[in-house]
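Can't paste images in this forum, so I'm doing it all in text. The chain is below; anyone willing to post the predicted structure tokens underneath?
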Amino acid sequence: MDIKQGESVFEEFLSSCKTNCNLIYVFKNVLKDAYIDFQIISKEKLIDFIGNDGLCNVKVNNINTLSDNAKITVYSYDFEALNKIGYLACYKYNDKFIIKSFKRNHKDKIGDVSKSEQFKSTIKQIGLSTKDFN
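Text version of the structure:
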């Protein structure tokens, strides 16, 4: 994973959010998550929130290819906003940035293992299966 490349892409994405929201596309499910997790009610409000430095301590989480198109690289990030840890995934396609995900990331802090992963690990340590909790 090339952290510098991920950071560079984020800076370009942030610049697009600040200067031209027409260069950003947001999937409807992303808007639903943004509303549920951060009370952001529209595409314009989401882009404005990002563009006006609403995301703090942004860190590259992962760089991967899009599952249905290996030619497209998806960049994901952890961030802090509104006293929550969030997760953003985006990619560039036809000179537009596509926001693939914008939601709460259930970690105590950036870099932590998620609480669900901690739960799974604890369950295994005491000899149970996570199937017992479904």
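Residues 66 and 72 are 6 Å apart (CA to CA). The longest strand covers residues 69-81.
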